[in-house]
Design brief:
By secondary structure, the protein is of the alpha/beta class. It is built from twelve helices and nine strands. The model has no long low-confidence stretch (mean pLDDT 97). Bound molecules: S-adenosylmethionine (SAM). The site of S-adenosylmethionine (SAM) has 23 residues, from strand 1, helix 3 and strand 3.
Length: 291
C-alpha cells in the first residue's frame, strides 16, 4: 500500500520520477502535509454521496484526500505535464476524473451536468493557483452552479478581504461581491512551511456557503455592483463624493444623489466601507429609479 501522495517523501519521489519542474507562472505550490489536507476536507463536510469539483489537482495531494470521502471528484488541471502523473498517482481512485482545461475557459456547468448526474450535494474544494484566485471564485459564483459552497485555500490577505465585515479596513467591493452570493468565513490559517516550493505569502482557507437567495434583493444586479465599485473608488472620500465622481454626469446630478442618500437613510458624509450590503441595495434601487 502506497503512502499518501502528500507525504514529503512520496511527493519528492513522484517529482523525481517524472522530472517535474514547478511553473511559478501557474501558481504551483503543492501541499505536503496530510494533516492540513484532511482539515481542509473536513471543512467541506462531504458525505459518501457528495460530489466535489477541484481546481488544479497538481500531483493529486488534495484530490486523493477528497476522493477518500466523496462519491465523485472532477478536477480541472491546466498543465498538461501533470496529466500522466495524475493518471499514475490517482489510479487507486477510479471515481476521480481529471479534465485538462483552464478553469477560466471551462464550461463548468455542462461538465457538472455530465459528470455529477444524480449527485445532490456538490462542493468546490481546492488549493487555488494564487495568480487567479479572485477570477476563479467570481466565475464559479456568477455561473450559478448547483453547488452547496466552496472550501478553498488562497492568499491570507485575499481571504480576509473576502470575509471582511463593514467598518473594517479589509471591507470592499470584493467582500460585497462574494458575500452577495455566500456566507464567507476564514476557517484556517496555513503556514508557508506546508508547501513545496514555499509561497512568499501567507495562506488561509475560506469557506463560502451559498445563500438560498442573494444577501439583498436588488432591481438590477449590474447597476448594484457598479454603485458598490464607485463607492469604494477612493476609500478616503465620502460616499457622496465617490458617487459624484463615479456616476456619469454626477456633478449635475448631485442633488438627486443627495436625495437618494437621504431616502435610503445614509449620511452623505459616511465612507463606502461603513455601508452594509442592505444599505448598498437600498441606495442602488433608489438611484436606479431616480438618475
Ligand atoms: N492541489 C495541489 C496541491 O494542493 O498540492 C496543487 C495546488 S497548486 C497551488 C495550483 C494548481 O492549479 C497547479 O496544479 C496548477 O497547474 C493549476 N492551475 C493553475 N492555473 C490553472 C487554471 N487556470 N485552470 C486549472 N488549473 C490551474
Amino acid at each position: 500500500m502506497n503512502k499518501d501522495i502528500a507525504t514529503p517523501l512520496r511527493t519528492k519521489a513522484i517529482l523525481e520520477k517524472y522530472g517535474f519542474s514547478f511553473k511559478k507562472s501557474l501558481g504551483q505550490n503543492f501541499l505536503i502535509d496530510t494533516n492540513i489536507l484532511n482539515r481542509i476536507v473536513d471543512h467541506a463536510e462531504l458525505t459518501e454521496a457528495s460530489g466535489a469539483i477541484e481546481i488544479g489537482p497538481g500531483i493529486g495531494a488534495l484530490t486523493e484526500q477528497i476522493a477518500k470521502r466523496a462519491k465523485k471528484v472532477v478536477a480541472f488541471e491546466i498543465d498538461q505535464r501533470l496529466l500522466p502523473i495524475l493518471k499514475d498517482t490517482l489510479s487507486p481512485y477510479p471515481h476521480v476524473e481529471v479534465i485538462h482545461q483552464d478553469i477560466l475557459k471551462a464550461d463548468v456547468s455542462t461538465v457538472v451536468n455530465e459528470t455529477m448526474d444524480g449527485i445532490e450535494d456538490i462542493m468546490v474544494v481546492a488549493n487555488l493557483p494564487y495568480y487567479v484566485t479572485t477570477p476563479i471564485i467570481m466565475k464559479l459564483l456568477e455561473e450559478q452552479l448547483p453547488i452547496r459552497g466552496m472550501v478553498v485555500m488562497l492568499q491570507k490577505e485575499v481571504a480576509e478581504r473576502i470575509s471582511a465585515k463593514p467598518g473594517t479596513k479589509d471591507y470592499g467591493s470584493l467582500s460585497i461581491a462574494v458575500q452577495y452570493y455566500t456566507k464567507a468565513e476564514v476557517v484556517m490559517i496555513v503556514p508557508r512551511t506546508v508547501f513545496v516550493p514555499q509561497p512568499n505569502v501567507d495562506s488561509a482557507v475560506i469557506r463560502l456557503l451559498r445563500r438560498p437567495e442573494p444577501a439583498v434583493k436588488v432591481k438590477n444586479e449590474e447597476f448594484f455592483f457598479d454603485i458598490v465599485r464607485a463607492s469604494f473608488a477612493q476609500r478616503r472620500k465620502t460616499i457622496l463624493n465617490n458617487l459624484i465622481s463615479g456616476i456619469p454626469d454626477g456633478k449635475e446630478k448631485k442633488s438627486v444623489i443627495e436625495k437618494c442618500l437621504a431616502d435610503a437613510e445614509i449620511d452623505p458624509r459616511r465612507r463606502g466601507e461603513t455601508l452594509s450590503i442592505e444599505e448598498f441595495g437600498r441606495l442602488s434601487d433608489l438611484l436606479l429609479d431616480s438618475l
